[in-house]
Specification:
The protein is α+β, with helices and mostly antiparallel strands. It has 2 domains: 2-86, no CATH class; 91-145, CRO Repressor. It contains 8 helices and 4 strands; from the N terminus they run H-H-H-H-H-E-E-H-H-E-E-H. It has helices at 2-21, 23-27, 31-49, 55-78, 80-87, 101-107, 111-122, 154-171; strands at residues 91-95, 98-99, 130-135, 141-145. A 4-stranded antiparallel sheet has the order 2-1-3-4. Strand 3 (130-135) and strand 4 (141-145) form a beta hairpin. Helix 1 (2-21) packs across helix 4 (55-78). Residues 79-149 form the YetF C-terminal domain. Its main location: membrane.
């Protein structure tokens, strides 16, 4: 029972810790972050197993972690509030080409991070070419390009072409029709 309680405590501690350090850290792992993660995993192993390195203890820890994860998934699927607490919610970082400094500061995301995501996803080079940039719950940045002729929906382009055609037709003089007698 001691192993299960230790596992539950460590799981909840790590869940809160990773929720507090932010989504971006989990998405973009630097060399320093990776080394830190290795050290944390070793410390976690020691805390989970204690002095008992038996096969049964290891299997108990693994089973407890899997059941905790499954249980949390069930709870999240039944409650949007719990899901928002555990997973967080998307955060708008850029709106109509303007970086929202409060959101950037809160999420520890830089304008360079946003532009990198924009370049990779859409070939965008400048902030003013971004309609929205959103830090997703997963830690990735989604970019919606600003409207341009290439990104407008095709039906809008067809509608504009039809209007031009109708306008040109209305401007042309109409030939006189012979009258019917």
């Amino acid at each position: 029972m001691d192993t299960v309680l230790r596992t539950l405590t460590i799981y909840l501690f790590l869940l809160v810790l990773f929720r507090l350090i932010g989504k971006r850290t989990l998405s973009e792992v630097s060399t320093f972050d990776f080394i830190l993660l290795l050290i944390v995993s070793e410390a976690t192993q020691n805390a989970l197993l204690g002095e008992d390195y038996s096969l049964v203890t290891g299997m108990t820890v693994i089973l407890t972690l899997v059941l905790l994860d499954l249980g949390l998934s069930v709870i999240k699927s039944g409650s949007k509030k719990i899901e928002k607490i555990v997973e967080g919610s998307p955060l708008v970082l850029v709106e109509n080409g303007k970086a929202l400094q409060g959101s950037l500061k809160m999420s520890q995301v830089t304008e360079d991070d946003i532009l990198q995501s924009a370049r990779l996803a859409h070939g965008i080079e400048r902030m003013d070419q971004i309609r929205f940039a959103v830090l997703e719950s997963s830690g990735g940045i989604s970019v919606v390009p600003a409207s341009s002729p290439e990104t407008q929906p095709i039906d809008r382009q067809v509608e504009q072409a039809l209007r031009r055609l109708l306008d040109e037709k209305a401007m042309r003089p109409q030939p006189a029709r012979p009258s019917q007698a």
